[in-house]
Amino acid sequence: MRVDFDPAEMGGPAFYRFLTSVVVPRPIAWISTVTPDGTVENLAPHSFFSIASTDPPIVQFTSIGRKDSLRNVEDTGEFVVNFSAEPLLQLINATATDFPRAVSEFDFAGIERETSRHVRPPRVAASPVVMECRSHTTLHMGNSTLVFGRVFLASVHEDYIVDGRPDAQRLRPLTKLGGDEWGTLGTILHLSRIPYEEPAM
């Protein structure tokens, strides 16, 4: 027997909790931005994050409500996606607090910055992978805004590269589950795709 969850009956907040419990695991984009006057550098995790296009390379994160990350991207057109690795869990969680826009999460959590090459927002120095992005498109949908950013530079620490590409086991990606639950990589399964073959006539 199934249990039904009707969004019309439950309402938005309750169905949000349902969705984030079943759409798992979700990769976390640790987004760094800067205010238009350059005085405050913000940093916040966003667990609605994915690839939108590979050519040109475009990544996407979703802001639920009017978060500082969204405001800064709208005002400056720039952001950095910092890879969320398991050893950084405590720092990432510390930047998830809904601080006022004038408060820098970098400063609050004591996170070391690294200068970006193509955009103004700084990188997280301890993050193994960073992607410097410029805003491509924003799409307003319900209570959320989808932010699409074109990647102008990706930079990976050499210790995390195996056979010419970033290695998942070395990266130790951190993911978000439901509620206060977080996920780690676990077992990696290797399974080749089955090629399609025309049936013999």
Radius of gyration: 19 Å
> Spatial order of the strands in the main sheet?
3-2-6-9-10-5-4
| Percentage of residues in helical conformation | 10-25%
| Biggest sheet architecture | 7 strands, antiparallel
Classify the beta-strand content into a percent band.
35-45%
Apparent shape: globular
Structural class: alpha+beta
The unreliable regions are none
Give the helix tally.
Answer: 6
- The total count of strands amounts to 14
Instruction: Encode the helix/strand succession as letters.
Output: HHEEEEEHEHHEEEEEEHEE
Q: How far apart are the termini?
A: 45 Å
Mean pLDDT: 96
Question: What is this structure, in a nutshell?
Answer:
By secondary structure, the chain is an alpha+beta fold. The chain is 19% helix and 36% strand.
Describe the protein in words.
The chain is α+β, with helices and mostly antiparallel strands and 201 residues long. The protein contains 6 helices and 14 strands. The protein has a 7-stranded antiparallel beta sheet, covered by helices on one side. Strands 1-13-14 form a 3-stranded antiparallel beta sheet, with no helix packed on it. β9 and β10 form a beta hairpin.
